[in-house]
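Q: Joint fold for the lines below.
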Amino acid sequence: MRELIDFLLSYKHWFVFLLLEVTSLIGLFSSNGYQKSVYFTTANSIVGYAYTTISSVTSYFHLASVNRDLEAENEKLRMENVALRNHLHAANADSVKLDGILTDYQVVMAQVVNSTLHKATNLITINKGSADGIEPEMAVVSSRGVVGVVYLTSAHYSIVMPLLNVNCRISCRLKQSDYFGTLEWKRGDSRSTYAVGVPRHAKVKSGDIVETNGYSDIFPPGVPIGKVSNIGDSEDGMSYSLKVNIFTNFETLRDVSIITNYSNPERRSLEDEAQTAEQGEE
Amino acid sequence: MSLLRLIIVLVLQVLILNQIHLFGYVTPIFVGYVLLCLPKKTSRIALLLWGFIVGLLFDMFSNTAGMATAACTALGMFRNSLMSPFTPRDTDDMFHPTVIALGATRYFIYSLSSMFVVHAIFYGLDALSLHDWQLTLLSIIGSTIFAALLCLFAELIVRKRK
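A: Joint structure:
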């Protein structure tokens, strides 16, 4: 302790020197405008530089928590994104493709309440009926394409005969070349059907789009059905039998639309009349 | 004696030397001369206080708050170190560093080095940046030489008369 005091005493003039210098410098910087401004400018830039350096170092220590926050926010946004996408999908489910093709038609939305897929005569039950303006022979479509034809109606329910029914016959055409045929389903495969009766001189290639042709008074022309996946010959060898992958996924089908104003009574009555006359002649 | 010298030097400085701006940048700070004359026995603390007071008085009359105070305090700090190379070893405590005791050449170098400390700090604080450092350097060198010559002449005048 004594040595320390001696040590300090032997350097006392240094302390006095520093004290006096600091005093004079305080006087200098507090009373002279120029020196004051230099002091503040320099001090500010030095302090600013020091803070920048410090924060550039300390920011690394916060990275873990920043990362955690970002991770949480990412997860939240991801969940929100999924929810919104589901929402959007549900909202657009019945309108995406129909908007372009079916703008002129009145459409009734319905949900599938029951369906079979693995029988020969599959049927789909939907939750709209004659009370909603649904009648037999109306077209049923999904957001992806053709579903089937209304077969029977009750007040609040309807039975739809889908493409996946051996009795279902829907005339169709190749979008690229306009050659037409008829859809026939062969039992067992719920993802594909066959377009038969396509003439042999038709130019067909795998991937061609098959759509409704408007010959029947059920479907408007241009509603997509599916895509040609395999080109084969019919049993009699006179025409092509094209395997068509159906756009509509019947296994997950939930929302469907029924076109209510396409059927033309005048045309139908005329066609019925002609058929009756023909039968009379026979 | 020292007090009288202080008053005379201060009057000289404020009334005459502060009005001199040789070449626009040389203004000698002659008040440091008071510290050069203090006897060898003066303690460092006393030298520091002398320097502080002298500088403070200079600043009060020159409106240069703190600049000369800092410079003269530094001179008080280093005066003994600057003086010792020029003094004979076997001197007693009453030794006065005069031009007679040291000789003109030694005394001039002694005053030159002392004045350099004062003017380097004074003009350094005045500029407080390296902007125009050539001018600052010229001010320091010119004023140092001027002030050292003044010290030498003052010594010659005062000591010869005795």
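Q: Anything notable?
A: DSSP finds six helices and twelve strands in chain A. The CA atoms of residues 115 and 124 of chain A lie 4 Å apart.
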